[in-house]
Amino acid sequence: MGGGIAGLSSALELSKTGYIDVEILEKSGFLGGHAIQFACKATDRCVSCGACMVEEKLKQAVENPNIHIYSRSRIQKITKSEKFSIDIIIKPEYIDSKMCTGCGVCLDTCPFEGSVIRGFSKNNMPLHTICEDSCLYFKDKSCAKCQELCPEGAINLDSLESCHTSEVDAIIAATGFQPYNPVSKPYGYGLFDNVITNLELERTLRKNSTAARPSDGKAPKNIAFIQCVGSRDVGLNHLWCSKVCCASALRMANLIKMRQPDTKITFFYIDVQTFGKNFQAFYDEIQKNIRQIRAIPGDIYPTKDDRLQLTYFDGAKSQSVDETFDLVVLSIGLIPGQDNPDLAGLFNLEILETGFLAPVENGTSGICDGIFTAGTVQGPMSIPETIANATDVSWKTIKYLSEKDIQETQPDAQI
Amino acid sequence: MTSPDSINLEHLNHDRFKSWSFSQNICTTCGICSSSCPVSGVEGFDPRKLVRMVRLGFQEQLVETRWPWICTMCGKCAYVCPMKIDIANIVRGIRSLRDRDQVPGILHKGIDAALKTGNNLALPKEDYLFILEDVAEEIAAEPGFEGFKAPVDKEGANILTTIHNKLVNTHTEDLKHWWKIFHVAKEDWTLVSENWEGTNWGYFTGDDTAMKTFIGRIVEHMEQLNISSLMCPE
Hints:
The complex is a heterodimer.
Chain A (H helix, E strand, L loop, with lengths): L4 H11 L5 E5 L25 H13 L3 E4 L2 E8 L3 E7 L14 H5 L6 E3 L9 E3 L5 H5 L4 H5 L12 E7 L1 E4 L3 E3 L15 E3 H11 L13 E8 L15 H15 L4 E5 L10 H8 L4 E3 L6 E3 L5 E7 L4 E7 L1 E6 L1 E3 L3 H8 L23 E3 L9 H21 L7 E4 L1
Helix pairs in contact in A: 1-2, 1-10, 6-7
Chain B lengths: L31 H5 L10 H10 L2 H6 L2 H4 L5 H5 L6 H10 L8 H13 L7 H16 L18 E3 L11 H12 L4 E2 L10 H4 L3 H18 L3 E3 L3
Parallel strand pairs in B: 1-2, 1-3
């Protein structure tokens, strides 16, 4: 369950056995989860961000004949006897993945923003998906421009939903995290165009290679990163460090500094969480180019010239300082997925105090044997950590399956 | 406040503040309190540092420094604090540790005056009533407010209002706004002739005994006059 980096990694690992068939159930139209939206942050050398591994895993999973992918699917019913029987409903793609070339004519001709959504990887076709909630065709059939103008004739807006029943021996819940929505924090997110999240900056850098202000598309001259927004927060009941944001923000800052060298970057932080063996050396290096201020800013105000004034306490000077920035990037926390309580209830999984799901050691921990958890459904993890975790879970799944002495050749495991 | 060159660790009192109900032990020193504070930087005031001093048990320095008295206890820091540390209440706790004669002059004198006379200014009753009447007469002279009077000690009124001492001293004009609103809204309200002070410097200086005395007086008024709602303009 879940076609993010944990689901893709587990699927690939299981399929390597040669005798396990895998089905990936993905809720959205795109594989790769959050991580496929991330930009490669290499400058003159690789900084080990892991973004390329997602693309690679995605490509391998899509091309693997033993992995069957059901995007845009939702679970209708799960029953357990010998095997799990999972009824799913699959929303139509509308765009034929074999015919689509990813040219984007559908997106360009659509008169209604948000009705055609572009994916993140050309390895995951169709590249675009049609959103029934806002598309005029599904409202009153008043527009079918994309279907009429698609040069490949790949679009059929009258495609119907389909059903599928999976019969599987084991399930890996790899439904991931959700990003914290920072609207309630005092930084005007949602009010001011040029206050964005680190995930939004990741997408911008992936798409355009450089940073730009949403309000006017111009290159920002002065960027502020604010760390720990929604992490380490007892008021929100988020007591954990989200682990990935320090490295992600600093790598993005470093990349921007390389591509847009005139940009001034300030990093407002509490303490830098240097996970990963290479990070200390990287951190020592980037401190030369990126100003570090050990305080989280308080107020934000828009200025008359469409910039943002932040107030922060300068400990060295013992005084409050007002400073103006062109772009403010909030490093938002990784928080438990919305479906975690339902998953825990359905499969008798242990839900932690944090709201994340506990790891499952041998698959026989509860009334539902054969259920495992993998990746950020368990808590914040980086891309490499998620891959390692998912691989470990795959081996535990293989062990569980072999102990059950299952030797059928039908689909055996589901992710 | 200047930082000492060295700290005698034996003087630190870690246990002193442990019983306080706010969990300053989970402060991550993020600094959003200091960044948000409207008076941070005044004499170097740094709420983040203050919370750390409390955590570390710098009792002597905390009692001596003027920082807790620079703070206005507005509570913005606590509102934005991700760890929900009640910094304003910490400040009040520190203020409570000063000997009362070390409490900044005007506050100390005001509390003494209020305990003795019922208001922070030691304003005599006849002067106070004269000011109320005078303001009421000025309102009555305005069109639409003919016959306006400020009710005093009215039994069974709907709302009892206290007075901030500056409103019968330098800011009498400010009384008019809400009195006029009461009049237009046909509100049944009253003032009191004695113990009318609404500004509780016992609360602000961390003097619980005085605070309770002042609140007790208001409760007494409400019971005697049989009034259930209070408006306490500060």
